[in-house]
Design a protein that fits this description.
Elements: E1 7-11, H1 16-20, H2 33-44, E2 49-53, H3 61-71, E3 75-79, H4 85-98, E4 104-107, H5 109-113, H6 115-119, E5 126-128, H7 133-143, E6 158-162, E7 165-168, E8 206-209, E9 212-213, H8 225-228, E10 233-234, H9 237-249, E11 255-258, H10 267-279, E12 287-292, H11 299-307, E13 310-318, H12 322-327, H13 334-346, E14 350-357, H14 364-376, E15 381-386, H15 394-401, H16 433-448, H17 451-460, H18 464-479
Parallel strand pairs: 1-2, 1-3, 3-4, 4-5, 8-11, 11-12, 12-13, 13-14, 14-15
Antiparallel strand pairs: 5-6, 6-7, 9-10
Length: about 475
Amino acid sequence: MKSDPRVLLVFPSFDYEEQYGGLAKAASSMVPVSLIYLGTYLKQKGVPVRIFDGQVMEQTEAAVRLQIEEFAPTMVGITTYTPMAPDAHKIASVIKKIDPSLPVVMGGTHPSVLAREVMADPNVDYVVRGEGEETVFELVEALSTEDGEKNLDKVLGLTYRKGAELVSNPARALEVDLDKLPIPDWSMLPLDRYHQLPESTFRTPVRAILTSRGCPYKCVYCSSRYTSGYKYRYRSADNVCDELDILINQYGARQILFLDDNFVVNKKRTHELMDEMIRRGFHRKILWTCAGRVDQVDQPLLEKMKAAGCKLMSFGIETGSQRLLDLLKKGAKVEQARKAVELARKAGLKTRGTMMLGIPTETREESLATIKFAKDIGLNFAKFSLTTPYPGTEIYNYAKENNLIEGEDWKRFSSQAGYANFDPIFVPEGRTAEELKTLQRRAMREFYFRPRQVLDMLKNMSSVADIGLYFTVAKSLVFGTQKLED
């Protein structure tokens, strides 16, 4: 037998200054929920786990060495998204420099889509495709025995080398009953080091929870279906509320961030969850925020959410053009966005909209119409992103086929390139990178530099530090770029 397995899970460091420029201080740090689920699952199986998150922990070579010397892992797992891929490969090389025999595994959306490319890095030994709990545990088991590598062909969802050959085992079926997974052990993270967007922080501390996986919709810009699939799977109301109880009473939560891509896919389930939250009295202890589609809300549901403690709902609106909405295969109507915001505000909720600029075939006039639409429909907050063709999406395939991507510099696959020190990776035909970057900044200025929006932001200030933060952001928006002429 080999030594008992121990797994170090790594979230790579992320250069906020490079990605967000003057808005870096306002960017939220992402609680690595996938690593929490994976780590808790492994711990339940008897495997010691440590999470090493470069967002909130120093990740120099010396720091990495110290983690390996202190914890003595028998495997290192690294998760990554596309813009972080270079950082993920960099830390893989550091690990191999420290201990060449230590197996390095990569997972997450980017490796799931581009397993062959990721495995071209000799510092990466395995790629776990899709949801990783069972696959990683079976890999840990296999590598913990003397002849375990002979059984790698039985580990579904695994890509690995077999001599000179690269082998990708069949995909693993997704877990349908999420209640079978253990409730996350949040003690593995220094929760107080994470911070959320100021505009959606109403009380502190803020804690996060994921109550579902998968999405039945097929928007052409979304790559997360490669890991979570199209089947919507959700935890029961009791299971979710058991975790909420822990977050409130053990981790001091006063606000909850529901991380679900789409919180209201199943209205019956959403009502059941709201009823249970109210029954347990959580509505008197916490506020919470969530995201959903504009075509799935109605007045009774929104009023129930408000009664259960919801403070803000974020809608994926994307564009003010029905033509572009259809091109994105969003499956919604522009007027549904206007109506959803109206209903949410009537129910007493604050609203946030996510918008896209630079959609394929989008004209300058349509970009300006989207900015105007966001201002006109009564949103409290808005986020304007540049359309980014992440690998695994229809937009990526379209951009590649039409030679609209300038290479594959993964760091440039950023929806916030308007604030970054690089140009957007994707520029639609007839547009320019400079135009898109300036439009993104213009959208933020025009939306937020209005009396009602300024008042909303002032109401959200909870400390003197917030004043300095908002001043820094405002200065970046005003002086960070020249205003594009109409």
